[in-house]
Amino acid sequence: MSVTKHGGRTVKNIPVNLQGHKLMVTEAPTLKMWENDNGVQEVVTDRQGVQQFVVSLFAKRRAQPGEFAGKGEEIKVTLTADPGEGFEEGAYVQLVDATVSYWERNGRSGLSFRAHGMTPVGAQAPVAA
Hints:
By secondary structure, the protein is mainly beta. The protein has a single domain, classed as CATH 2.40.50. It has no helices and twelve strands. It has strands at residues 2-5, 9-12, 14-15, 21-31, 33-35, 41-43, 53-61, 73-79, 92-96, 99-105, 108-115, 117-120. The strands form three sheets. It has an eight-stranded mixed sheet, with no helix packed on it. A two-stranded antiparallel sheet has the order 1-2. A two-stranded antiparallel ribbon has the order 5-6. A hairpin with a 5-residue loop joins strand 5 (33-35) and strand 6 (41-43). Mean pLDDT is 87; it is low at 1-6.
């Protein structure tokens, strides 16, 4: 876990356990893009030049018998590797090594989610190298 000073101490890359939630793909994974100062779209890469991907998921808590599940929420997750094929809209997935970070910029703030990848529900998660 790394700590960054940005208007105070902010904890980054906190491991997050979403196993008690159903995660459904609402927008299939695509390359993550950003707009440069000239208005040109560019692919987002990490410090090693590896392309990043983004997927939109609907996250909803799994209710236990007799419980109300409550409302869900759509989250965007940055994937640090190409997730591959088979993650179309409506597919249920699990995230691999998911983390969450708090951010603040220009008077706005929020949470950003990252994961090393994702697997279809019921599939074996890859072992970290």
